[in-house]
Amino acid sequence: MSTVQQPEPGDRPARLAVGVVGAGRVGPALAASLQLAGHRPVAVSGVSDTSRRRAEAMLPGIPLVPPAEVLQRADLVLLTVPDDALPSLVTGLAETGAVRPGQLLVHTSGRYGAKVLDPALRAGALPLALHPAMTFTGTPVDVQRLAGCSFGVTAPEELRLAAEALVIEMGGEPEWISEENRPLYHAALALGANHLVTLVAQSMELLRTAGVEAPDRMLGPLLGAALDNALRSGDAALTGPVMRGDAGTVAAHVTELRRHAPQAVDGYLAMARATADRALAHGLLKPELAEDLLGVLANGTDSTNGTNGTNGTEGNAR
């Protein structure tokens, strides 16, 4: 259950006409969430057939129009395009006179802060960067997931309260991120979320190769517990052969990966090295056990001439 405190009626901003430029997975979900809070979606722009179908499904009855017309109709405009497309979009909208003074212009890029909206600011717009720290599917479930979702918020100080109020209206929790820290903030989220998907997908593929019929059922409880432990305890939650210094087991892993999934070796070694570094730094990996382990990780080969490790099998997933 979300702990977000909804604003009192008297604290809520005036009901706004909402437009979306870029009907990817994020924009329609945010507009639908704002609609639940009493705002009024009025226009959406989308290029591909997929984005148009998504807009029609998430925001039924809302007209699909060109971006400039979205700005003509809306008081609050969500710019939900890919990061690399955002600067040129903002510049183009400002140069063509599409931006209106007093218009709230919101982008949802994690990479950028409010300064990317400077061309629109000079045209009189009110710039806000509101990035939901959530993965989106492009379906109505996204609206539900916004409840309790943290948003990275960056805006001029005079617009801070307005930005935070919009986030709260969507059921989210505002987290203030300074302009200069936006790239680091976004890198941290990508490291934790995007790379997690890659790791889980690789793990499922390897389990299928090993003969596991339902890798999702096997991994679900294990990964859920690991994530919960990591969020609660950080590095103290580290487990497994790297943390224990089981060089033979790690060498056996590398040998099997080279045989069955060579494309996974580099990722395994990189993550194992990072795990070893953190385990050593926090006193979890005994220095006397680290030398052989680090030799395996440096060479990517079985430098111990063993494959069973010191603690037997990994069946207990410790």
Structural notes for this entry:
Helix content is 48%, strand content 11%. It is of the alpha/beta class. It has a 7-stranded mixed sheet. Strand 1 (17-21), helix 1 and strand 2 form a beta-alpha-beta unit. The longest helix has 28 residues, at 182-209. The radius of gyration is 24 Å and the shape is elongated. The model is unreliable at 1-12 and 302-318 (pLDDT under 50).
Task: Kindly summarize this structure in a few lines.
This protein is of the alpha/beta class and 318 residues long.
What would you call the structural class?
Answer: alpha/beta
**Which geometry do the CA atoms define?**
elongated
Helix percentage range: 40-55%
How many beta-strand segments? 7
Task: Name a few traits of the molecule.
7 strands, alpha/beta, elongated, disordered C terminus, 7-stranded mixed sheet, 13 helices, disordered N terminus, 318 residues
Secondary structure topology:
Blueprint: E1 17-21, H1 27-36, E2 40-45, H2 49-58, H3 67-73, E3 76-79, H4 86-95, E4 104-107, H5 118-122, E5 126-132, H6 141-145, E6 150-154, H7 160-169, E7 173-176, H8 182-209, H9 215-233, H10 241-244, H11 247-260, H12 265-281, H13 287-299
Parallel strand pairs: 1-2, 1-3, 3-4, 4-5, 6-7
Antiparallel strand pairs: 5-6
